[in-house]
Amino acid sequence: MRMLKDLVKHRNLYTMAIPGIIFLVVFSYIPLAGHLLAFKDFKISQGIWGSDWVGLDNFRFFFSNRDWLQVTFNTIYLNALFIIFEMVFALLIALFLNEIRMKWFKRTIQSVVFLPYFISWVVVGYMAFILFNNTDGLINSVLNRSGLQAVDWYQTPWVWPIILTLTRIWKSAGYYSIILLAAITGFSADYYESARLDGATRIQLMRYITLPLLKPQIIILLLLGVGRIFYGDFGMIYGIIGDNGILFPTTDVIDTYSYRALRQLGNFSMSSAIVFYQSIMGLIAVVSFNALVRKIDKDSRLF
Amino acid sequence: MVKSKLRFLVTALLGLAITLSGCSGDGGNASGSNKSGENGAPSLEPVTLEVVVPGAKGANYDEVLAEVNKRLKAEMNTQVKFTIIDFADLNQKTNVMLASGESVDLIFDAPWLHLDTMASQGYYEELSELLDQYGPNVKETRPQQMWDANKINGSIYGVPLGSAYTQQRSVFIRKDLREQLNLQPVKTYEELKAYLYAVRDSNSGITPLLAGADDVTYSWVNWLIRDDTSVNIRPTNFAGASLMLYYKGNDGKVYNFFETQEPKIWSNIQDVRKLFVDKVMSQDVLTNKSNPAEMQLQNKVAATPQMVFGAPKAYNDQLKQVVEGGELEAVRLFDLTPGKNLSNFKMDNFICIVKTSKHKERAMMFLDWANRQENYDLLEHGIEGVNWKQVGEHQYETLNNDSGIVSFQLMLNPTLEREWVGTDEETQKYTQFITEADNFTKDVMTGFTFDPTPVKNEVAQFATIQAKYYSGLFNGALDPDEYFAKFKAEGEAVLEKIQKELQNQVDAFLAK
């Protein structure tokens, strides 16, 4: 009853939520039914219901080979690196931008750090190739000219988590910093004024006012990141690493791995099995991270 | 010339007459087996066909397509829309298109892509009836042996596209560079290597050799093995052109490379490793992001494997714009002794009608239309009198650098295909050799296709293991002494299961 009253009272607000809800239903809830395919021998000619149930058979190719541990680890490890470093750099950028008083300068910097977000991963892949390749790569040319030993970048697996993380920071830290900056500009000026009256320095203002006030935004961004920690960024990894087997030990993620396994077979059910695995693990990750947040700070939890 | 125009006029008039009589006669009696394929346009509802093919758009793509659609509109009230996909994305994109049930009517597929698996999973329509009813020209332009050899489990899931019984292939090198380096014309692999090393030592900044690691077929070892008629090793197609399971000679046996470590393949692997270490093979062979042919035309690479017997004129024109006097020549290692090469008479490319298509009849009518000489020429060479002109019965002369929009992706057949008038005699010798079925020994595996379903888990697994090592080993980027053992340790058990299943299917096939 109270809910109904609330619905009537705030009908305008609720109306505005409708497009978002429709989007979620169409693209997130209805596809949940697709998980069924993971347990069927799906044939397009027989349809979803006509195809046979096969139990866990579709999971066999993934779990009966020890590679699944490696790619799962890579996925989590790379995503953790991305989430942490993106957040740290986004925070730094947001805090610094907030301190800039010259409007035109602030705007320029804001645009410059935001810009890479719009470059497609395919293009980034080409850029990386121009930088790191062995024939006429920019970096090796510089190394050679300054008398240093050139490095076979594309044959050196251990450097790629670093390169990928740097690329991610360059590409999306600016984007997240804009979100944080939007929150910062909303903070009441009263806090800062009274702190300044008490003689707080700029660093102290950041440390004791801005950061604590930003906590909810940071936690939500982290939670969203953790929710997708089992989904490798296919566009990124495939765009930059491609089919270079030498780099797989450190860069192959669940998505690129299953793509490679199944592109010859084109099997729907087996790819659904992988997605099912990722969804379940993602769900576990979100629930446990949320529980952790609840313990630390009850008000910032998502649910 | 005059004669051909006349012939065209006569067919056109005849077509018109049939069309008219079809309408004015007793209504919808325009029978399906109408030879010229013109089934009274007005009675057909308007349809736009979606066609997905690999390749790239030429400069005059729009003009040719407009002419195609003009003719189609008049003849069968049909429009056609091409989606042209770059080869590098072909596998991924077609997979997704089929899997997601996107509305596509005609799609290109091939044994080296995923024809067998897609067909066995029911993505493609069985064509026998459609061919009988709507595709007389499609049928007649291909000999019966071709239809027989290109069935999958006894059914026709795609129209075979090809005009020869094996692929054309050669290695393009630079004639001008070779002459600068004072080398004689290259006839053997040893001479080719001498050329490559000479290019390296000339310090011109040009990479001597670039194979194509993203497509296993173009891996250097695969490329060399194909032309070695002393062993007749060929891929089983259980995982593209991978040689990890191969046939050898004509004994109907499936060989496992982990088990045999076949000396011919192994020595080639060691050989290409040496090329890589000596910096003859591009150091970026595994990561290279541009098309090897393109890089060669930009004067960055001195040799690339190519699927033709002779360098096309357009290539040489393009190269000359980059380097003055630049000229390509083809090194052909193909064995011209009759009977030495095996053929399963299988075509490399197919055009398929998608099961979910709503316009299957029209799609076949369009194919039939495309397999008539005047339309075939338009699609392949462009507009007559502007882009090309006819010479003799089976040749053509280019008038400018533009050509048509599709060929081997849609309608290529031995009956209607024309040869370029400027093809040199030597190249012609090769191209004509491979169009004669009698020059080939029949492969015992002719007509066999592997059904991977019983071992799909193993195939998927092996694909990921192979992805780590195959291209690296077969193009020299990985040290065989170290990495082959790793490859073997990871892949041996899985591959053996696939081998057993494949051998069972082969035995069952041969017993029939």
Summarize the structure.
Chain A has 303 residues and is mainly α.
For this structure, what is the CATH homologous superfamily of the largest domain in chain A?
MetI-like
How would you write the strand order of the largest sheet of chain B? Answer: 2-1-3-13-4
Please provide the count of β strands of chain A. Answer: 2
How much helical structure, as a percent, in the residues of chain B? 40-55%
CATH class assignment of the largest domain in chain A: Mainly Alpha
Q: Report the span from N to C terminus of chain A.
A: 23 Å
Count of runs of 4 or more consecutive helical residues of chain B:
19
What integer is the average pLDDT of chain A?
A: 89
Average pLDDT for all residues of chain B: 87
**Biggest β-sheet description of chain B:** 5 strands, mixed
CATH topology (level 3) name of the largest domain in chain B: D-Maltodextrin-Binding Protein, domain 2
Radius of gyration of chain A (Å): 24 Å
Main pleated-sheet profile of chain A = 2 strands, antiparallel
So, CATH architecture of the largest domain in chain A?
Orthogonal Bundle
H/E series of chain A: HHEHEHHHHHHHHHHHH
The figure for the number of domains of chain B is 2
How many beta strands in the DSSP annotation of chain B? 17
Enumerate the strands of the largest sheet of chain A in spatial order, edge to edge or round the barrel.
1-2
Basic shape of chain B: globular
